[in-house]
Amino acid sequence: MNVNIEPGWKTQLHEEFEKPYFTNLADFVKTEYKNTTCFPKGPEIFAAFDHCRFDDLKVVIIGQDPYHGVGQANGLCFSVNDGIDSPPSLINIFKEIETDLGIPFPSSGNLQRWAKQGVLLLNATLTVRAHQAGSHQNKGWEQFTDAVIKTVSDQKENVVFLLWGGYAKKKGAKIDTKKHCVLTSGHPSPLSANRGYWFGNKHFSKTNSYLKKTQQTAIDW
Q1: pLDDT confidence of residue 2
Q2: Res 169 pLDDT > 90
Q3: Which of 124, 130, 195, 202 is most deeply buried (CB count within 10 A of its CB)?
Q4: Alpha-carbon distance 112 to 103, whole Å?
């Protein structure tokens, strides 16, 4: 099946695109986009991969669902389009970066700037119906993104995986911790963060320390 995705990823994932579950998933997504309003826009479904080339990848952040409000989702987990207010989880991410690294709160919640530096911002489910959280779960996306995580774990070395919250931790269960750095904490959502499970995790400085230690360029968060 021909999937329009960054060439390095296409090489790594081409066998996945030929599997029956993926054909069924593609049919489901096409039907949903034709008959209902879905996010992100069709050309942005694989934006996480298009903005973060496989060869450049050095950090993986795992999210769950795309944002389901109008104009928010842009294909990168936790990220929103320019001109859109940052949602609560993203605000808490920026607060932690400010405390951890002294980087001031940014004017835009668009995280393409991270992706271009090698941060894969991967949602477990890559599409969603408008205003219906979780509406495209259990249709095949999770199997696909599990395969993505396994491919990164198998084919790369010294990648930093940031697993925030129980769902992401389960999703990262098959990562080879001997080859990679896995950092875990609570989720940045207000419910978790306000209970003390997010703030102070220092994941952003820890990521950069590991990258420098393994002769990689630090991320400009």
Answers
A1: 82
A2: yes
A3: 124
A4: 17
Q: Scanning the structure block, which residue is given the tokens 């080339």?
A: 53
**Amino acid letter, residue 188:** P
Residue 138 has what pLDDT? 97
Judged against a pLDDT cut of 90, whether residue 70 lies above it is answered with: yes
In angstroms, the Cα distances linking 56 to 9, 75, 139, 211, 217 are 11, 18, 29, 13, 11
Number of other residues whose CB lies within 10 A of the CB of residue 169: 15
Question: Is 65 marked active-site?
Answer: yes
pTM for this prediction: 0.97
Alpha helices in the chain (DSSP H): 7-17, 20-35, 47-51, 88-101, 112-115, 141-155, 166-171, 190-193, 203-213
d(CA 186, CA 113): 24
pLDDT tens figures, 28-49: 999 999 999 999 999 999 999 9
Structure tokens at 57: 């990848």
- Residue 1 pLDDT > 90: no
59 neighbors 119 (Cβ within 8 angstroms): yes
The continuous run of DSSP H or E covering 163 comes out as strand 160-164
3-state helix/strand/coil string of 101-160: HCCCCCCCCCCHHHHCCCEEEEECCCCEECCECCCCCCCCHHHHHHHHHHHHHHHCCCCE
* Cis-peptide, bond into residue 87, ω within 30° of zero: no
Active-site residue (options: 55, 56, 65, 176):
65
